[in-house]
Inverse folding.
């Protein structure tokens, strides 16, 4: 669930950032005539009148040659009504080629966003707190042609708040870079995308590289993605743990479904995961996980006799998640017990988790 939230949060944040940046570019052409202070006032007034949100911009700098170069500092945007902060950005830099604008084409040399902090909220009725910021499609108007050479999001920090579930989840700090973005009549495509995630409490770091990301209003295809997860934890016998992975995924946006495959290695262990998401909201996931062999004693500390459990696991995040799957392990070693040919059926629904297994042959060593 958390992976889905991270991915969903990342895509939503990127969409909002690009939409706001492109909108701000429209004022760059007149800033030199009317002055930065007047532009800041007009932008704040328009945001308040149209969206009932308070917009603050501490600084604006504009250059018109050889690119339309826009730099913003100290940007903050409130929730509707101005009661609380929705998002804040330390700095934004956009460089635009003005030549193709007359033919409704955007050619952006670079977009750089530093220190974006935002809180994404799902209301009790299912609406998101960014719905009013997303542009409404106009069937009568042809889509603009756009190209973005490079996109950089540094120190992105998102918080996901679910009012229906009564939960708040701070997501890991994210650094993202993309190259070769194109938008046209047939959809959009990203040639290369890389992201790095960091979660300080347990020194968890993850990297992701995507090759050939493409989509339309109906579908999303990732030809290949790859990366690694590194976990450094003093409680582990063997630390850090390195987990490289790669895979592919395809989504049908009209049916709100997705499917894909993930392959990973953990030392001598090989893991393969086939998954299908038949419904985005609430999520309904089916999976098949296969592990050839797994030695948990290499990583987990020995459990002392009579040691008490720290407490019950918090399964509240399962409340809106439906999971049905199977896990198969060819050889498993844990607590000095060796078992083979294990099979598990896993089901989660309405906050309850059920795990059933078939008999396995095991012996203590």
């Amino acid at each position: 669930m958390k992976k889905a939230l991270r991915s969903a949060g990342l895509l939503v944040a990127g969409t909002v950032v690009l939409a706001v940046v492109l909108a701000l570019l429209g004022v760059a052409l007149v800033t030199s005539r009317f002055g930065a202070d007047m532009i800041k006032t007009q932008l704040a007034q328009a945001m308040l009148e149209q969206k009932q949100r308070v917009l603050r911009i501490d600084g604006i700098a504009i250059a018109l040659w050889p690119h339309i170069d826009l730099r913003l500092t100290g940007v903050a945007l409130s929730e509707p009504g101005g009661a609380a902060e929705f998002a804040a950005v330390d700095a934004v830099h956009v460089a635009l080629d003005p030549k193709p604008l007359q033919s409704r084409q955007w050619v952006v040399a670079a977009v750089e966003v530093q220190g974006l902090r935002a809180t994404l909220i799902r209301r009790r009725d299912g609406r998101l707190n960014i719905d009013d910021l997303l542009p409404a499609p106009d069937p009568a108007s042809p889509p603009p042609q756009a190209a973005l050479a490079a996109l950089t999001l540094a120190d992105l920090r998102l918080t996901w708040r679910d009012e229906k579930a009564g939960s708040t989840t701070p997501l890991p700090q994210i650094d993202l870079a993309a190259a070769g973005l194109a938008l046209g009549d047939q959809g959009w495509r990203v040639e290369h995308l890389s992201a790095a995630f960091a979660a300080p409490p347990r020194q968890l770091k993850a990297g992701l590289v995507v090759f050939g990301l493409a989509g339309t209003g109906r579908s999303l295809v990732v030809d290949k993605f790859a990366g690694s997860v590194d976990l450094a934890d003093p409680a582990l016998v063997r630390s850090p743990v390195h987990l490289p992975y790669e895979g592919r995924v395809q989504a049908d946006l009209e049916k709100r479904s997705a499917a894909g495959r993930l392959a990973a290695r953990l030392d001598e262990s090989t893991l393969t995961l086939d998954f299908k998401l038949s419904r985005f909201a609430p999520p309904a996931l089916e999976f098949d996980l296969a592990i050839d062999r797994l030695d948990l004693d290499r990583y987990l500390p020995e459990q002392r006799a009579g040691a008490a459990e720290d407490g019950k696991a918090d399964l509240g995040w399962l409340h809106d998640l439906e999971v049905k799957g199977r896990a198969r392990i060819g050889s498993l070693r844990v607590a000095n017990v060796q078992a083979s040919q294990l099979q598990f059926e896993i089901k989660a629904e309405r906050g309850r988790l059920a795990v059933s297994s078939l008999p396995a042959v095991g012996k203590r060593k």
User: Anything to note?
Assistant: The longest strand covers residues 105-122.
